[in-house]
Amino acid sequence: MRTNLASPPPERGLFCNRTLNLRAIKAVGYDMDYTLIHYRVEAWERRAYEYIRDRLVAQGWPVEDLTFDPGLAIRGLIIDTEKGNLLKANRFGIVKKALHGTRPMSFEDQRDEYASTIIDLHERRWVFLNTLFSLSEACIYAQLVDRLDAGQLPGTTPMGYTDLYEQVRKNLDATHMQGRLKAEIIADPERYVIDDPETPLALLDQRNAGKKLLLITNSEWAYTEPMMHFAFDRHLPGGMTWRQLFDVVIVSARKPEFFTTRSALYEVVEVGGEALLRQHSGPLKPGTPYFGGSAVELERHLGMSGDQILYVGDHMFGDVHVTKDVLRWRTALILRELEDEVRAIAGFRATEARLGERMEHKERLEAESCQLRLELQRRKFQYGPRSEAPSEADLVARLGELRAELEALDAELGPMARAATELSNPVWGLLTRAGNDKSHLARQMERYADIYTSRVSNFLFATPFVYLRSPRGSLPHDPSLPGGTPVFPSSDTGGGGVLGPDAGE
C-alpha cells in the first residue's frame, strides 16, 4: 500500500469544476461497478461482446467470425442509430469525426451528412456512450452495420440501422438478464477485477471523519455481495466486513429512476442461502441491505438533502447528470481512462510546445500575407490609403515567398497535428477533446460533475477535510490560462482543483 501520500502521480488528481468543501459533506453515496470496483475493461467487454455475438449466432446470424476490437469505441462517443454511424462531437454538438460502421467517413461525406446537424441527446436518434459498459455494444453495432451494408444479415424485410441497433440492445439486455456473464465473474473475480487496496482505506477515512457512507447500485444482491466481499473484506481491519463500512446499502436501485421517481422499498432477507424480499416501511436498519426505493425516501431517512450529499459514480447520465439536475446533490464522476489521458498529454508536452511555437510563426506569416493581399486589392481598386513603395511587383514576389514558406511549414506541422489527434486512441484521440475544442463528454462533465477523478481511492490523498477550489473560468480574451495550485502539485502539471487550508469554512 502506498505510504507517501504527499505526492501522488498527477493522473491520480482530483479535478474540480465547482468549488467543493468536503468538510461540509455529511454523506457520500457510491455506485459499485466501475466506481468502487474497477474491472479489467478489455476482459469484461470482450466477454459481454461474445455473449451478444453468440446469441445472434443462435438466432441464425452469420457473425460467428466477428471479434471484439477494444480500440473501436471509447466512452463519450455517440451512436447515430438512423445512419449507422459512430460519432465524436464537440461541446456544441457539432460532429468532428465519424465512422460509418467501422470505416472512417471522408471529410466530404461527413460534411454532407452533418454540416447542418446539431446533436441533441434528448432525441432518441442519438445514443450516448455513458460508461465503459457501452464499449461492447458500440463495437458489435459498428461491425454489424458493415454486414448490413453488405447484405449479409438475415431477414426477409429490409432492416434499417435503427432496427439493427434495437436488435443489439435487446440481446445485450438479455445477456445481463440471464446473469451468465456475472456468474462467470463471481466464479473468477481475479480475472476481471483490478484490486485496489487503497479504496477501503479512503472510505474508512471518510467514515471515521463522521460521514455517512451509502452504497446505491443497480446490481442485484446476488452479485453485489460476493463482489464487494472480494474487493473490500480482505483490506479492512480486524475482521470488519464491507457491510459494516456502509450505513445504507441499496441494490437493484434502477438508477436513474431511483433519483427521479418513488418506488417501493424492500428488505433483502437471506434465508437458507437465498435472498428473499420483504416489503419495508419505517426507518432503515443498519447492516440490512435494501432493494429498490427512492432518493426521496433515503433523504428522509438521513435527514439530509441537496448539497449535504455527495454522490460518486461512473455513469454520466444515471449517476451524475440526474443527481445534479433533480436533487442538487454534489457529484463526482469516476473516469478511469483519465489516467492514460493525463499520461499521454504529459508525454506529448515537448511536441505540443514545438507545435505551439510553429503555429505562432505560421500566424505571423499569415498576418503578413493578409496585409499584402489587402494592399494589392486597394491598389487595384484605387481606394484607401496608398503608398508608392514597395512596388506592386515586389508585393507579388513577397506574397509568393510567404506562400512557399507556409506550404513548407504546413508539411512540418502536419505530422505533429495528426499525432495530437491520435493521443490515447488512434481513431478517436483524447476522451476530453474534439480537435482543439472540448468534447461533448467534457461538456457533460463540466456541466454536471462538481469534481472528477480516475478512481475512488484518489480521495485518500486529498483527505476527508479537503477544500477543493475550481480554477478561474477561461474565456478567449483572457490574457493567459487560469489556474492556481493543483490539488496535487507537481512541476509538470497545471489546472485542476486547488487546495486551500481553511478558506470558506
Automatic annotation (TrEMBL):
Alphabetical list of InterPro entries matching this protein: HAD-like_sf, HAD-SF_hydro_IG_5-nucl, HAD_sf, Pur_nucleotidase
SUPFAM superfamilies listed in its UniProt record: HAD-like
Keywords, alphabetical: Hydrolase, Magnesium, Metal-binding
UniProt similarity note: Belongs to the 5'(3')-deoxyribonucleotidase family.
Record protein name field: HAD-IG family 5'-nucleotidase
NCBIfam families cross-referenced by the UniProt entry: HAD-IG-Ncltidse
Lineage: Bacteria, Pseudomonadati, Myxococcota, Myxococcia, Myxococcales
Pfam family, one: 5_nucleotid
Region (Disordered) residue spans: 477-505
CDD domains registered for this protein in UniProt: HAD_cN-II (cd07522)
Source organism, top-level taxon: Bacteria
